[in-house]
């Protein structure tokens, strides 16, 4: 009788140990599966969409995020910045974003604001001339390397290309095209996805 109890307790110990080990393996496997659903750094670099929280972005501010190894600017324009676009319409080279639209401007951004919402601009911060990164020059008025009637926008310090507050290049500048507007969409008033829109990924 005592031998049977010893055997039973031995079996019970073996079953408990096996079950515990199986549980650990199961958890490790589940963890590995969950991690496969999250974009890896390599996938992000290759162009996986990037979700951005814009809840803390105030009027007149710019936030920079990385997508496909490029800086993407998100600018919350003030009413004055939006109004300035009317003044620069006749000074920019491609006011209606008709040059290379498939590459630089999605259909929903082929408007005066080059955006889905007048107050929010989403643009790749790389000059279309030689790939330099322009500087933000949001303050209107005369400044070094800028015209006296400057309304605010961006200046590429390498070769002097200037862009307005919609990323539209001014006439007679080295940059051949407006700044690129990447495909994007809003998940809510405070959440933005870059690299993807209703038609799919870029």
TrEMBL record:
<keyword id="KW-0411">Iron-sulfur</keyword>
<dbReference type="InterPro" id="IPR017941">
    <property type="entry name" value="Rieske_2Fe-2S"/>
</dbReference>
<protein>
    <recommendedName>
        <fullName>Ubiquinol-cytochrome c reductase iron-sulfur subunit</fullName>
        <ecNumber>7.1.1.8</ecNumber>
    </recommendedName>
</protein>
<keyword id="KW-0812">Transmembrane</keyword>
<keyword id="KW-0249">Electron transport</keyword>
<dbReference type="GO" id="GO:0016020">
    <property type="term" value="C:membrane"/>
</dbReference>
<dbReference type="InterPro" id="IPR014349">
    <property type="entry name" value="Rieske_Fe-S_prot"/>
</dbReference>
<keyword id="KW-1133">Transmembrane helix</keyword>
<dbReference type="InterPro" id="IPR006317">
    <property type="entry name" value="Ubiquinol_cyt_c_Rdtase_Fe-S-su"/>
</dbReference>
<dbReference type="Pfam" id="PF00355">
    <property type="entry name" value="Rieske"/>
</dbReference>
<feature type="domain" description="Rieske">
    <location>
        <begin position="90"/>
        <end position="193"/>
    </location>
</feature>
<dbReference type="InterPro" id="IPR006311">
    <property type="entry name" value="TAT_signal"/>
</dbReference>
<dbReference type="InterPro" id="IPR005805">
    <property type="entry name" value="Rieske_Fe-S_prot_C"/>
</dbReference>
<keyword id="KW-0408">Iron</keyword>
<keyword id="KW-1015">Disulfide bond</keyword>
<dbReference type="GO" id="GO:0008121">
    <property type="term" value="F:quinol-cytochrome-c reductase activity"/>
</dbReference>
<keyword id="KW-0479">Metal-binding</keyword>
<dbReference type="GO" id="GO:0046872">
    <property type="term" value="F:metal ion binding"/>
</dbReference>
<keyword id="KW-0001">2Fe-2S</keyword>
<keyword id="KW-0813">Transport</keyword>
<keyword id="KW-0472">Membrane</keyword>
<comment type="subunit">
    <text>The main subunits of complex b-c1 are: cytochrome b, cytochrome c1 and the Rieske protein.</text>
</comment>
<dbReference type="InterPro" id="IPR036922">
    <property type="entry name" value="Rieske_2Fe-2S_sf"/>
</dbReference>
<dbReference type="GO" id="GO:0051537">
    <property type="term" value="F:2 iron, 2 sulfur cluster binding"/>
</dbReference>
